Amino acid sequence: MSFVFEPAPVPSVAVAGSEARFPVRRIFCVGRNYAEHAREMGNDPDKEPPFFFTKPADAVVADGAAIAYPPETGNLHFEAELVVAIGKAGRDVPEAEAPDHVWGYAAGNDLTRRDLQAKAKEMRRPWDWAKGFDRSAPIGALHPVAEVGHPETGFIRCEVNGEVKQDSDLAEMIWKVPGIVAFLSASMEIRPGDLIMTGTPAGVGKLEVGDVCTVSIQGLGSVTTTIGPKG
Ligand code: MN
To answer: How far away, in angstroms, is 110 Cα from ligand 1 center?
Structure first.
């Protein structure tokens, strides 16, 4: 078989302490998964089933990258998030078996064009343009479960130019990783290479040209992104 042109390279994420990379298939993201953030966005955090949106696999950006300030926004936001990497396929995965499907964890940043998201909500339109733009998913090196286990507590932080903007704990997640995997796999077959960004704590805010943004999670390292000029 041949292609009419050279296929795009497989998007991938670094693995801590290894030369091998984790190939990315899809990126799922959970909305409103920390009560204080749900409130700051004007929603009631009472437990409702998790809901998902997606980003393209090739939106991944490595630690240390500079990205252009994206077009069509004047309100680019950071969102510190725990990233779950799926290593084993499954459908209707029960919560008790969910950990077996996880390959590793990383720190990630769900970059968001907040003004486009607000407009989408107001007009009852999809969030894709607000969430799934080019280079909207900085993700740090993955840490294999074999080394870090399944972190359920520990700090999750976002700093902009060294100033702490978000400072919470993984224990504050409304839906824990097993519940998220169970819900997701009831709706779609999860496959190796899928990533899940699990929602952000309170304190989201703006990034400006020249800002340096670092998301860090206890035991999982960090991901730093520099915002370059509009491009
Ligand atoms: Mn998010």
So the answer is: 5
